Structure to design on (369 residues):
């Protein structure tokens, strides 16, 4: 593979996408951070230029339907393939505001979805039930900036709530940046009971990004490690179904690729996803945030080069501080340079969980001087 130094940087601004892919796209994990650092130093706007090269994804199947936004009137109308469902009593029809999405070497690993409304929530739950979706990842708040982008599809104040033919009961465990809710659903007719887990990430505003990607990596790690009896696709949803949802699914894809192939290809991963849903990873900021998440995952060895128990973190840190301070300093400098640094605001988003930086994202580790 050609190195960055051997490549004419004019390729970044020309229209030869095949040559760009050959020279820039897939990068070994060992050199990925150095290449990103080099490119950022030489041209701070290169991520924006790469983002503009992404395909629009307009070549979807002819059967795709053009469905308008259901959660946010500012979101442009996009094409969804929809999820086919079987009738359940008087509840009929498909769920048109979602689509199956391929993960890394796994067809239909995810269902990407817009958030439900009061009018669509019954069919939303029918989709989750029929497709055995044991894990649900919600990346938006119920209320943001005086608007209500998401209808609450679980019991918020009552002990239970009914959606279609399903009675839902819940219990929850709160974290600083995400809540984990155990949802028990009982079918009114068959009396079958299924258990679902809702992972609600509360630290990602409607516009912009979620700050330091460490917390999103922790959420992804928890979703990946938890075991569910239902082995259907993971439902990932946000207001538009394409921005935050696309970034989360792409991050999972690239981390799995890095673990198996020892190489990452952010550009190609998003390009492939955009053949399924147009404008997946909707904005330049989300694309840059995706790169930051990959960098932090590789730097922190989160689910890439091997896991270690949280109880071993402090002994490992102290050992490096005493025996390999240079390595520790180099790692910190890479993260500080290429990944957003967490702030006090990041650790207490939504003002609902007061917490100290000591329990925050990976980048809370202080400068090892």
């Amino acid at each position: 593979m050609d190195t960055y130094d051997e490549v004419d940087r004019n390729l970044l601004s020309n229209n030869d996408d095949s040559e760009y892919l050959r020279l820039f796209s897939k990068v070994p994990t060992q050199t990925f951070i150095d290449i990103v650092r080099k490119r950022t130093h030489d041209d701070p706007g290169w991520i924006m230029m790469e983002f503009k090269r992404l395909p629009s994804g307009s070549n979807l199947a002819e059967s795709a339907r053009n469905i308008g936004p259901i959660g946010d009137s500012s979101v442009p109308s996009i094409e969804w393939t929809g999820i086919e469902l079987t009738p359940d009593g008087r509840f009929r029809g498909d769920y048109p505001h979602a689509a199956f999405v391929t993960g890394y070497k796994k067809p239909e690993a995810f269902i990407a979805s817009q958030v439900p409304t009061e009018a669509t929530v019954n069919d939303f739950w029918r989709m989750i039930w029929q497709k055995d979706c044991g894990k649900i990842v919600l990346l938006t708040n119920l209320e943001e900036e005086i608007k209500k982008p998401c209808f609450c599809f679980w019991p918020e104040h009552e002990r239970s709530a009914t959606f279609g033919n399903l009675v839902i009961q819940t219990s929850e465990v709160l974290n600083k940046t995400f809540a984990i809710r155990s949802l028990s659903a009982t079918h009114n007719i068959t009396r079958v009971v299924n258990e679902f887990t809702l992972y609600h990430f509360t630290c990602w505003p409607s516009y912009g990004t979620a700050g330091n990607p460490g917390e999103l990596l922790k959420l992804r790690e928890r979703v990946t490690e938890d075991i569910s009896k239902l082995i259907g696709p993971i439902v990932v949803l946000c207001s538009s179904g394409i921005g935050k949802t696309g970034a989360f699914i792409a991050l999972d894809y690239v981390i799995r690729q890095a673990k198996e192939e020892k190489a990452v290809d952010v550009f190609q991963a998003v390009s492939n996803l955009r053949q399924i849903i147009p404008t997946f990873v909707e904005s330049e900021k989300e694309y840059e945030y995706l790169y930051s998440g990959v960098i932090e995952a590789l730097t922190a060895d989160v689910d890439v080069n091997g896991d270690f128990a949280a109880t071993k973190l402090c002994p490992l840190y102290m050992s490096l501080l005493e025996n390999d301070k240079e390595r520790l300093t180099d790692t910190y400098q890479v993260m500080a340079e290429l990944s957003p640094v967490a702030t006090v605001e990041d650790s207490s988003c939504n003002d609902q969980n007061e917490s100290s930086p000591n329990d925050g994202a990976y980048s809370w580790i202080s400068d090892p001087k």
In short: The CA atoms of residues 334 and 356 lie 24 Å apart. Confidence is low (pLDDT under 50) at residues 1-14, 57-77, 302-309, 350-369. Residues 244-261 form the longest helix (18 residues).
